[in-house]
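In this section we walk through a basic example: taking a raw amino acid sequence and producing a predicted 3D structure, encoded as discrete structure tokens. The instruction is simple. Fold the sequence below.
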Amino acid sequence: MNREFRPGDYSKDKIFFSSDYHFCHAKVIEFDNRPFQDLNEMHETIIRNHNEVVPENGLLYILGDVAMGKDVASVVTMLNRMNGRKVLIRGNHDVIMMKEQSFRDCFEMIAEYYRPTLHGHKIAMFHYPIAEWDQAYRGSWHLHGHIHLGVAPIEPSKFLNVGIMNNNYFPFSFKQIEDYMETQPNKSSHHD
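The resulting token sequence is shown next.
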């Protein structure tokens, strides 16, 4: 991990978010009804789509579930083929990969839960959807993954499932999320 990593230095057009790649997880194709014949097609499509939108000097937040299984070398190779620097917000399926230094070295930072302020927006990032997050009633965003194509049972507010399957296997851009969040109300305050 690079100690000089400063996420606030990235312009809006260079920041992206995603989750639930599930590299090396053959059953996810059936589970999510993903439009791929096999893992190779899924891997290559995700990498190609990623490199089409994320620049070399971009930043990607992966909100968990990078891969399944024990083929660390293949997963590291795929991550290294993907443009930009990467931050991992750990998911439940990242446990095995996290044991390997070569996997951890693919990321500038690894966290369970992360609350940066990016371009004036407070963001709560967690692999799982949560019902309450810091400053939700003041307009902060909650980005999550985990439920694949599902929608979290959270009242309408500024939250979004950034699972890769929810954006046609492309990462979400900061601008896409910002535009979406402008259409969403703040979460109701329990302090009213």
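Looking at the output, two observations stand out. The chain has one domain: 13-182. Residues 39-53 form the longest helix (15 residues). In the next section we compare this with other chains.
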